[in-house]
Design a protein that fits this description.
Distance between the termini: 33 Å
Helix content: 10-25%
CATH superfamily: Ribonuclease Z/Hydroxyacylglutathione hydrolase-like
Radius of gyration: 16 Å
Shape: globular
Oligomer: single chain
Order of helices and strands: EEEEHEEHEEHEEEEEH
Strand content: 25-35%
Number of domains: 1
CATH class: Alpha Beta
Bound molecules: zinc ion
CATH architecture: 4-Layer Sandwich
Length: about 200
């Protein structure tokens, strides 16, 4: 395994932009599912989900290579559906990953098992997310977990939902959390008042 290899393919970029002074968020067009890269004011790389393919030349892997990402400081799996987890397994195999967050829902699939095995192989902290958690991934940011559940029938309802505040700007990443879910009152209340939502 050579984690330093850089791909040459150019990612299809859905959206990107400067965020406050030095925060950048990139939402890669991975087809179905999500694949997000955040570059924080303190220079940390945060990856949220990885798209639906394990290909090392997929749009998501190619974009990480294009941005010269060799180390992922924080990896977040919002929930274990294949269109979110597949690419993260590949990223774990190709990059240095320093920490992984996951609601650790009770969910059985080959894709999720492969992901968990890749985390074990990485020997990095593997942390269960809980609703209400706060994360100090970058001192310039205020990051709160608004939703994360492990005992739900539909994996979408387990999704880690993050509110990331950078000065006057707020972004919201919620995986496949249904806003109509009456149990996600905190999530739904915030969603209606935020300027951006993913
Ligand atoms: Zn889903």
């Amino acid at each position: 395994m050579n984690k330093k290899l850089m791909g040459l393919a150019v990612a299809a970029l859905y959206a990107s932009g400067a965020w406050a002074a030095s925060m950048q968020t990139f939402v890669v067009n991975v087809g179905q599912g999500d694949g997000v890269l955040l570059q924080t004011p303190g220079g940390k790389r945060i990856v949220i989900d990885g798209g639906p393919t394990t290909s090392a030349t997929s749009a998501f892997q190619a974009f990480l290579d294009k941005k010269l990402v060799s180390t992922v400081n924080v990896m977040v799996l919002t929930h274990p559906h294949t269109d979110h987890v597949y690419g993260l397994t590949t990223t774990l195999q190709r990059k240095v990953v320093q920490s992984v967050y996951d609601p650790k829902q009770s969910y059985s699939s080959t894709a999720y098992t492969n992901f968990k095995n890749a985390v074990l192989a990485e020997k990095c902290p593997y942390i269960k997310s809980y609703s209400g958690d706060s994360y100090s991934w970058d001192s310039a940011l205020t990051i709160k977990c608004l939703n994360a559940r492990s005992n739900v029938t539909d994996a979408n309802n387990a999704s880690v939902a993050l509110r990331i505040v950078n000065g006057a700007k707020t972004l919201h990443f919620s995986g496949d959390t249904p806003t109509s879910d009456a149990q996600n009152l905190e999530e739904a209340n915030y969603a209606s008042s935020l300027p951006a939502r993913f």
